[in-house]
Every structure is written in C-alpha cells, then in structure tokens.
C-alpha cells in the first residue's frame, strides 16, 4: 500500500476541487495512483464542484443561533429554491451559525476552516460545502454573517428561511421578539432617523427637489415641500418612528411601545436572502434560437 502524503492530497484537490477527505479516500483506493484517483472522484462526484463554482447563488437561507448569550446569523446561498429545502443544506447552514457563535471566525475563509463533518464530508466546514456541491450538483456559498457578543440580550426571528432578524436589547423578551417580527415585516433602514445613511437622505432630497420643481410652487413653499418629504421619509425608515405592526390603535410607534414595556433596543440586524445579488434570468426562447442557429451553421 502506497503512502498517501499531504502533498498528494493537495494536488488531487487542486485538480478536482473535491473535499480533502474524499481526495484522501480516492488516493487510498487507487493505491496512490493520481490519475486513477482522479477518475474515481469523477465517477463519484463528477466535476460538479468545479463547474458549479461559477454559477450565481441568489437563492438560499438565513440561519441563526444563540449559545451562552452569544448569537450569530448567517446567509448561505444556493442556486435554486429547491435546494433550500434540502436537509443536508439546511443542516450545514444551521451548523455554520452555531460555529460562528462559538468560535468567532474573522471572515468567511476562517469560518470555512473550522472543524466540522457532515454526510461523510469533512474535516472542515469548507470541505462539507464542497462535498455537498458535488453531491447535490449546485453551487453553495457562505455569503455573510454577523456575531453578537455585546452583552445585550438577544431576540431572533426567522420568517421562514428567507428573512432573519437579530435584535440586541435590554428589557422585556416579548417586546423584543415583537420588534424582531416588526423589522422582518417593515424592513427599517436604521434604529433612529439620526442613523439613516447620508447617501439615502440625499437621494430622497434629490427626488423631493425634482418633484417640487415640477409643482411650479414659489421657492419658499418648494423648500418646505422638500423638507417635509425628507422628514416623512426619515420616519418611514427609522425603526422607533415606524407605526408598530401590532399597534391596537394603528398609530402607536415602535418607540412608544418600547417605552411602555420599559425596553431599550440597542440595535438590529436584518438579512434578506439574495438582497443585492443580481439574478440570472434565462431567456429560453433566445437560447432555443441560438441552438437552432448553431445547428444550421454546422449542417
């Protein structure tokens, strides 16, 4: 039996993009024959992992975990909604959230290097990710995560698997959970109007200015219209100024509800799956036309 060295495993992994342990198993089965080991992996996993790596992952799930007062939330992406219901994919996402809470990785690369085994893949989370790509046949990526360890209490809310919220607070647990649900529904930009990013305010001011110019109103009235529009926008996107979704009178703000419950929200984080990712839209008619044209040219 030939000795399987780390350099051999690394070489095979570089050629196939297969998980490290799968490479080692293939080399062992092939008695150290690199070409044979590569063939074994292609039969077992195909070249799925390498080919899938370039495909857009605009679907996915949000997972969260809280352990000993420390929390984490992560977005894990895939290519289709079908995979978001796959038990192995969901297990990996939930495990990643727990690993973040426990180990405090610095970035996605450090997260992938953490010890984790699943479905026969490992010994790292990255090896499991690559293994599942080969097994399921879709690209999967760890997109972003955040760890919460400020000492504040934590409330989480997951709307299905596509929207996730973590609220950092002091006070009533039920009120904080309600706020997390409110954030998922109303998607505020910031905690208070003072926290709204300047670029968003300027964008709104620009739109209001254009509308005021179209109105033909005198300059002083136009200025008031612009400022009124900006202030209205700030209330609409600031959490404490938004009307609470569960307000009995339809008027109570989140800030007023929190005051009644002697609860203070320190901050919140909202993840929406695929936010900001440009999805590929397949034009099947164009694709068929292109295939027909190619067939004619080769005829």
Task: Summarize the model shown.
The chain has twelve helices and six strands. With 299 residues, the protein is of the alpha+beta class.
Give structural notes.
With 299 residues, the protein is of the alpha+beta class. β4 (153-159) and β5 form a beta hairpin. It is built from 12 helices and 6 strands. It starts with 5 loop residues before the first helix and ends with a helix. The chain is elongated, with a radius of gyration of 26 Å. A 3-stranded antiparallel sheet has the order 1-2-3. Strands 4-5-6 form a 3-stranded antiparallel sheet. The protein is 48% helix and 17% strand. α2 (20-29) crosses α3 (34-45).
**Main beta sheet:** 3 strands, antiparallel
**C-alpha geometry:** elongated
Provide the helix percentage: 40-55%
**How would you spell out the order of helices and strands?**
HHHHEEHHHEEEHHHHEH
Give the number of helices: 12
The strand line-up of the biggest sheet is 1-2-3
Report Rg: 26 Å
Structural class by sheet pairing and helices: alpha+beta
Q: What percent of residues are in strands?
A: 15-25%
Number of strands: 6
* Whole-number mean pLDDT: 87
Indicate the low-confidence ranges by residue numbers.
Answer: none
How far apart, in Å, are the first and last alpha carbons?
Answer: 53 Å
């Amino acid at each position: 039996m030939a000795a399987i060295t780390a350099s051999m495993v690394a070489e095979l992994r570089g050629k196939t993009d297969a998980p490290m342990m799968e490479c080692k198993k293939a080399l062992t089965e092939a008695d150290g024959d690199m070409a044979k080991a590569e063939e074994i992996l292609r039969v077992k996993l195909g070249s799925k992992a390498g080919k899938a790596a370039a495909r857009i992952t605009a679907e996915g799930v949000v997972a969260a975990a809280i352990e000993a007062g420390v929390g984490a939330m992560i977005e894990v992406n895939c290519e289709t909604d079908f995979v978001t219901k796959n038990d192995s994919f969901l297990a990996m996402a939930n495990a990643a959230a727990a690993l973040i809470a426990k180990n405090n990785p610095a970035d996605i690369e450090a997260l992938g290097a953490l010890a984790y085994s699943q479905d026969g893949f490992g010994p790292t989370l990255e090896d499991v990710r690559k293994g599942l790509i080969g097994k399921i046949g879709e690209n999967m990526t760890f997109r972003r995560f955040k760890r919460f360890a400020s000492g504040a209490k934590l409330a989480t809310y997951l709307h299905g698997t596509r929207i996730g919220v973590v609220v950092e607070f002091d006070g009533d647990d039920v009120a904080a959970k309600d706020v997390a649900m409110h954030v998922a529904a109303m998607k505020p930009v910031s905690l208070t109007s003072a926290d709204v990013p300047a670029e968003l305010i300027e964008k709104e001011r620009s739109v209001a200015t254009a509308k005021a110019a179209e109105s033909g109103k005198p300059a002083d009235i136009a200025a008031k219209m612009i400022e009124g529009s900006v202030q209205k926008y700030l209330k609409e996107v600031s959490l404490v100024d938004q009307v609470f979704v569960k307000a009995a009178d339809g008027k109570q703000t989140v800030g007023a509800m929190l005051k009644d419950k002697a609860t203070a929200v320190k901050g919140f984080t909202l993840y929406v799956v695929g936010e900001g990712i440009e999805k590929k839209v397949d034009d099947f008619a164009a694709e068929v036309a292109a295939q027909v044209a190619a067939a004619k040219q080769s005829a």
